[in-house]
């Protein structure tokens, strides 16, 4: 009886946390907690570091979607939370980074509801307009989130990773910048890759610059090697696109020249 009550209480707490999250900025997704539903049978097996795992459709979907669809599917996956943590733990040790970070984010919701609630409360109560109008600007605000992260520790990181990777299009710029300060205050092996992928994908100059600054602060030998690989990749892509553009221009010029001769 007691254990059942504790499990129900845990489910209620997580449901409340998710309702707060989807209300963040008023632009994520409606606070809609679907009823518990039957999960489809898993049919496709996969190998993972010597352990046999089953294909988990809902989890795989979360790896590739963002914004409102992601929030809805994440909420659905986290209900009910009973037994979910044990299922996620092997995924958190997967060789694939996308699998690993997704599992860590979900585990963050299961294990660190209090820390996430603290960050959310601060984000929602922040008087941004007043700070921007002050002489100090946003610096004290970002310093507050660095201090908050140092106080709460690694428990806040899954939320910060998720904000950058999944809500770039929905979150206000200052909130994304605050997440980079949180990440920079609490070193973690997964953070560098999260920052690099955010830098590669975002179109927001302010948050991108903040992510670059954080990446520089936390850089070690592994990070430098990863940045070097990313630069080489993007330079190769840029070379291909430049050559393709030159070829297209040459073809257009040739067609135009032939058309003029025909006259």
Description:
The protein has one domain (about 1-35, about 40-125, about 135-220). Mean pLDDT is about 80; it is low at about 1-50. The protein is built from 13 helices and 2 strands. α4 (about 85-90) packs antiparallel against α5 and α11 packs antiparallel against α12 (about 205-220). It starts with a helix and ends with a helix. The longest helix has about 40 residues, at about 220-260. Strands 1-2 form a two-stranded antiparallel sheet. It is mainly alpha-helical and about 260 residues long.
> How much strand?
under 5%
From the alpha carbons, calculate the radius of gyration and give it in angstroms. Answer: 22 Å
How many structural units, i.e. domains? 1
Order of helices and strands: HEEHHHHHHHHHHHH
Estimate the helix proportion, in percent: over 70%
Count of alpha and pi helical runs:
13
Give the integer mean of the pLDDT values: 80
Neighbour order of strands in the largest sheet: 1-2
For the biggest sheet, the summary is:
2 strands, antiparallel
Using DSSP, what is the number of strands? 2
Low-confidence blocks of residues: 1-52
